[in-house]
Amino acid sequence: MIQPTPPAPRILALDALRGIAVIGIVGMNVHAFALPVPAYYNPMSYGGTGPVDHWVWLGSFIFIEDKFRTLFAMLFGVGCLILLEKGSGPEGKSPWRAHYARMAVLLLIGLVHGVLLANNDVLRAYALAGLALPLLAGLSARALVVTALGLLLIHFALGLAVFGGAWAAFQMQHWDADALLWAERQFGRDPAAITMLLEQGREALGDRIVRRTLNIPAQLQTLVASLPLNLSAMALGMGLWKAGMLQGQWRTFRLQRVAGLAALVALPGLFALAAWLEAEGFPAALVGPVTLVLSAPFDTLLGVAYAALVMAFLHKDSGVTRRLAAVGRLSLTNYLMTSVVLAAIFASWGLGLFGEVTRWQAFALGLVPVAAMLAWSPPWVARLGQGPFERLWRAGARALS
């Protein structure tokens, strides 16, 4: 009788990296729960303009915004690759079939999450981008990194095409009023838009469910637009896995060198973009392309630097590493439960603090779900292993495949 292959031992540093990614995402997600959408990108839109608010924005823009999203997407790609490389799924079924079943269930979880709790849910985009991962799984590490760069360039080109009109209109002294008004509503200080968003943020749960359900088709445009960037990060993660970095095979000095070189390029670029925004006074026509397009290469590089540092310094078994690894092993559950906690703080059916706090106060309240993750994850993993939503995901995928 052929004995089943025992599961490979878990890589503690990789689990810890996943935990850090989930924790880091809270640093920006809290603003999506606490403030109108334009304030997520633009500190002048809403939420206070005091010195502390400014420093919170600057620190978030440089060190948090899209860096941990990049990490999360990289590790999603790694997780999918590991499962695809295992071969056949349950009962000898095709690994592709099992993978697409997982993506279908993840999309459903993301849709429910987006309607009930987090309109900025990333699971939907990951599920859609994940449809292409089996096509990339057979590529070499070098080819995957090149693919990631190509997808990043596609995101860059598409972003400039979308935002170029508004920025050109701003430079040409309001030549295109429609383009400027669109940018102002999305990333600026348009009073009517802010008032409408404040009303939406304070609506009852039933009203929110109806509105967001009806808005699902319109959200598909945003999800499709995010595919090149998310797929780029996933391909990069897969490439770094195959290269051995995320498998813990690189020496500490090599990891430190990669982190140093990546940060040496990323940080000056991000500080320069932040200085440009401040010098221009945060015009909406500039905030959009800077935060969503021009910063993307630097965000990716800093995400790689974070990954290298974690693999270099958290590979040894310690209390801190084990706690972070526990958070990472429950990454899906912790991501969803973070939204539950934040909704309990900011939504109308909770404490109702949406629009009532400044940027720095919102950031401070983001520590609540972080503390909860760090507290509950280790005992759950020790006693039950998988988290409840990881079990749900697996069971749903098994039923579909």
Brief overview:
This protein has 401 residues and is an all-alpha fold. It contains 20 helices and no strands. It has one domain.
Explain what the structure shows.
By secondary structure, the chain is mainly α. The chain has one domain. It has 20 helices and no strands. The protein has helices at 12-34, 37-41, 51-63, 67-85, 95-116, 123-130, 133-136, 141-171, 177-187, 191-201, 205-214, 216-242, 252-280, 284-294, 296-313, 319-329, 331-346, 359-365, 367-384, 388-400. Helix 5 (95-116) packs antiparallel against helix 6 and helix 8 packs antiparallel against helix 14. 49% of the residues are buried. Mean pLDDT is 91; it is low at 1-5.
Count of all domains = 1
Strand content: under 5%
Helix content: over 70%
Rough outline: globular
Helical stretch count?
A: 20
The largest pleated sheet is described as: none
The poorly predicted ranges are 1-5
Radius of gyration: 21 Å
C-alpha end-to-end distance: 26 Å
List keywords for this structure.
401 residues; mainly alpha; 20 helices; 0% strand; globular; disordered N terminus
List the helices and strands and how they pair.
Blueprint (H helix, E strand, L loop, with lengths): L11 H23 L2 H5 L9 H13 L3 H19 L9 H22 L6 H8 L2 H4 L4 H31 L5 H11 L3 H11 L3 H10 L1 H27 L9 H29 L3 H11 L1 H18 L5 H11 L1 H16 L12 H7 L1 H18 L3 H13 L1
Helix pairs in contact: 1-4, 1-15, 1-16, 1-17, 1-18, 3-18, 4-12, 4-15, 5-6, 5-20, 6-12, 8-9, 8-12, 8-14, 9-14, 13-15, 16-19, 17-19
